[in-house]
Design a protein that fits this description.
Blueprint lengths: L1 H22 L10 E2 L9 H6 L1 H12 L2 E6 L2 E6 L5 H5 L5 E2 L1 H12 L13 H6 L6 H20 L9 E4 H18 L7 H22 L10 H9 L4 H6 L5 H11 L6 H16 L2 H14 L1 H17 L14 H5 L2 H14 E3 L1 E5 L3 E6 L2 E5 L4 E4 L2 H4 L17 E2 L2 E2 L4 E2 L2 E2 L17 H18 E5 L8 E2 L5 E3 L1 E2 L4 E6 L2
Parallel strand pairs: 1-2, 3-10
Antiparallel strand pairs: 2-3, 4-7, 5-19, 6-17, 7-10, 8-9, 11-12, 13-14, 15-19, 16-18
Helix pairs in contact: 7-8, 7-19, 8-9, 8-14, 9-10, 14-15, 14-17, 14-19, 15-17
Bound molecules: protoporphyrin IX containing FE.
The site of protoporphyrin IX containing FE (HEM) has 26 residues, from helix 13, helix 14, strand 6, helix 19 and strand 17.
């Protein structure tokens, strides 16, 4: 009898633990509504991946603004009401923003995990070097970018009466990757065009695999990606960096800092430099593409922005010409308000970055006077600003491109409302709070310079009959979405 009883207890326990594995967790009082699907480990991953935005909107209708979903081994609590964002952004103690991004960076770029107690790197000290992307240093970077963008465009050797047809995304990749690389990493005394062409080719191949690496697909299953990553990393060994003249201060400082850690091997430091190059390009290239594409596609926007650029050039005593020697100050760039708005509008339509925080301990997150949610250690809290960017209560006809949406009375418009209340957060392509992108000012300046040169120098048009370009959702949650196809455009000197 005792034996049977023991066996029954064991069977119930086994069934319960199997049930727990299969069914996941049980929602506790005070926790957000929970949806975990029935597929072990994956949970709702497939539905989320197929159409993240649609998935979240349908769950918002069902559960409200705060709910938890089990996706690929993680319980993610989404907070979709923009008025609640600030409670997450301010909560630095229990919600950590670094753990996740450091882990992803280590996986994707193959460098050691920075928080690894065996080989610790002082992250705060490393992040202090980001100040070399701002303030006075940004002016220096802008000057270098302006020169490099133009020298790279000059290499295209467009004849005086020539009319050239190109694929727009490939064109943006070619110009921006090279100009940014030269701006950040300087030059070698001898000709290195061949190496740079290889770098661009390999970067684009690696970039295609980025979402799969983030999804933790082993690199060995991704064709020759591991070899490509190794080749790209080899551009940043100490020996090769020491040969380069004129490294940007942000890179010089980062290099000196990483070299103080003698237990990091050279290829590991090189992988950190490669990660930085990816951060500088991975979103900037598609962002520049979308901004250019929408402008060229919309004649009214194209004319208004070109008009503004020409006014600023005139006031600055600059003229677009085949020598490519335009020079603009930060003030000139800042005064291009309509261009700034057009760039923001393309960010609004094409950025889909998730802001992720990891819960450090079981605690109650206070959201407003009467609302709070219980969260568990190890779960993620996720903001998904794409929902805000496409919210018809905030942006009228959100699916429509409106180049001057962010201009009011000739100045930058910053007041946006939802249900009559002014929003503190209304456009978030660069993340939020202390984890905000440190390269954001540099990125916007670079895109502005690229567009100012393109629109002032060339007549541009999309080839007739080209089908509209849509968004490729492979990077949903990871930043600026890529186009789902390339598009042919024509350019010639503006007479
Ligand atoms: C349109 C272009 C860009 C977009 C949309 C963008 C967006 C982002 C986002 C969303 C993050 C993560 C923020 C978070 O975790 O909440 C990030 C991080 C970062 N970005 Fe950017 N970025 C852009 C361009 C740049 C450029 C040009 C640079 C450098 C020159 C750069 C350097 C970085 C770095 C170093 C980080 C990691 C910061 C850390 O250590 O926490 N980004 N960026």
């Amino acid at each position: 009898m005792e034996m049977w009883f023991l066996l029954a207890v064991l069977l119930v326990a086994a069934a319960l633990s199997l049930g727990k594995v299969l069914l996941g967790r049980i929602r506790r009082p005070g926790e957000p509504p929970l949806e975990q699907g029935w597929i072990p480990y994956f949970g709702k991953a497939f539905e989320f991946h197929r159409d993240s935005l649609g998935f979240l909107l349908s769950r918002q209708q069902k559960w409200g603004d705060v709910f938890t979903v089990y996706i690929a081994g993680k319980y993610m609590t989404f907070i979709l009401n923009p008025f609640l964002y600030q409670f997450v952004v301010q909560c630095n103690k229990q919600l950590d923003f670094q753990g996740f991004s450091l882990e992803v960076s280590a996986k994707v770029f193959g460098h050691p995990y920075l928080n690894d107690p065996k080989i610790p790197v002082n992250i705060e000290e490393m992040q202090k070097r980001y100040s070399y992307l701002m303030g006075e240093e940004l002016n220096i970077l802008n000057g270098r970018t302006m020169k490099n963008l133009q020298s790279v465009m000059k290499q295209e050797q467009l004849g005086p009466t020539e009319c050239r047809t190109e694929s727009m995304y490939s064109f943006c990749c070619r110009i921006i990757i090279e100009a940014t690389y030269l701006t950040l990493y300087g030059k070698v005394p001898e000709d290195e065009q061949e190496e740079i062409t290889e770098l661009k080719k390999k970067f684009i191949q690696f970039d295609k695999m980025f979402p799969y690496l983030v999804a933790r697909i082993p690199i060995e299953l991704l064709g020759n990606t591991k070899v490509i990553r190794k080749e790209l990393t080899s551009y940043f060994t100490s020996r090769r960096l020491d040969q380069r003249l004129n490294l940007a201060n942000v890179i010089k400082e980062r290099k000196n800092f990483l070299e103080t850690y003698s237990y990091l091997q050279d290829h590991q430091r090189a992988a950190h430099h490669f990660a930085f190059l990816w951060a500088a390009l991975g979103n900037t290239v598609p962002a520049a593409f979308w901004a250019l594409y929408y402008l060229v596609k919309n004649p009214e926007a194209h004319a208004a922005v070109r008009d503004e650029i020409q006014h600023v050039f005139q006031a600055a005593g600059q003229r677009a010409n085949p020598d490519f020697n335009i020079s603009l100050t930060r003030e000139h760039l800042d005064s291009m308000v309509i261009l700034g708005s057009a760039i923001k509008e393309s960010f609004r339509l094409c950025s889909a970055s998730m802001n992720i925080r990891t819960v450090q301990e079981d605690f109650t997150l206070k959201l407003k006077e009467e609302q709070s949610v219980k969260l568990r250690k190890g779960d993620w809290v996720v903001l998904y600003p794409q929902i805000l960017h496409l919210d018809p209560e905030v942006y009228e006809n959100p699916e429509v491109y409106k180049y001057n949406r962010f201009v009011e009375n000739g100045l930058e418009k910053t007041a946006f409302y939802k249900r009559g209340r002014k929003l503190r957060y209304y456009l978030m392509p660069f993340g939020s709070g202390s984890s905000m992108c440190p390269g954001r000012h540099f990125a916007v300046s670079e895109i502005k310079m690229f567009l100012a040169i393109m629109l002032a120098t060339f007549d541009l048009e999309i080839i007739e009959g080209e089908k509209p370009v849509g968004l490729n959702n492979d990077r949903a949650g990871l930043g600026i979405l890529l186009p789902n196809s390339d598009v042919q455009f024509r350019y010639k000197w503006h007479q």
